[in-house]
User: Fold HTH lysR-type domain-containing protein from Aeromonas dhakensis.
Amino acid sequence: MDLKQLTYLLAVRDAGSFTKAANGLHVAQPAISMAIAKLELQLELRLFDRQDRNVRLTPEGEVLCRHAERLLLQMHQAEAEMAELKGLERGEVRIGIPYMMGSYYFPPILMAFKHRYPGLKIRVEEAGTRELLSRMVDGSLDLAILITSDLPPALEGAQLLREEMLMVVGEEHPLRQARSVSLSEFFSQELAMFRRGFYHREHMEALAQGLGCEPDIAFESNLIPLLKAVVKQGFAVTTFLRMALEEEPALTGIPFTPPIFLDLCVAWRRGDPLSMANRALRDFLLAQAQP
Assistant:
């Protein structure tokens, strides 16, 4: 039993004859007769009472027609949904973004993507790098913005942007006018840092270990506004990506010597085909990438 047979079954029922059904479907009348005869043979049931040129459903045919209507409706709904997905009129994207980038780099890009594909749902999750890696591997996210050098074998990625990490000080800090700062100078300060599990924190701790010093971390928080407030009040210094200092006149970013850059990529699971919606978001992000 196939969908074509069921289509012919309903057409004969509605038309009241094989000839009229064939004309309505623009097929040869013998094709419909053979399809119905084959269906009756397969089911070992008589579906129509044939009286001259008129036909009428048997009780068994009426039962099958009810099933046929539901099956054909589901088929048409499936075709419509696939067509909508093909045109990216429906679907969902799931992307994980580090806290700092979620606040400063991505909002206008995601709004532009939503404007282009208004029917898509966008689910954004902000977290630390380690948490994002875990959610990517376990499948709860489809895409994530991650440190390129940090990708495990289970993930692959495409370069998105390079961003500089700066020492951040308040207006009264004695290094505010410095053109650059060494890591030793930075680690001699009281620090306000992200909690462990964030790449910023782990990276700076690794640099401190390389220098043989212990960072003096006076404040820990995952809240960027709180870290900024601590620095503005002169209680500590911190590190941010350059993007986080836009429109912050009370804060000054000082480059490190040598400079510290982070290469960021958009990542997905290796060998796991992305949906059309997620491919569209990935390609859109890469099209916006810095040259």
Q: What stands out?
A: The chain has a mean pLDDT of 89. The chain has eleven helices and eleven strands. The first helix runs from residue 3 to 15. The longest strand covers residues 251-269.
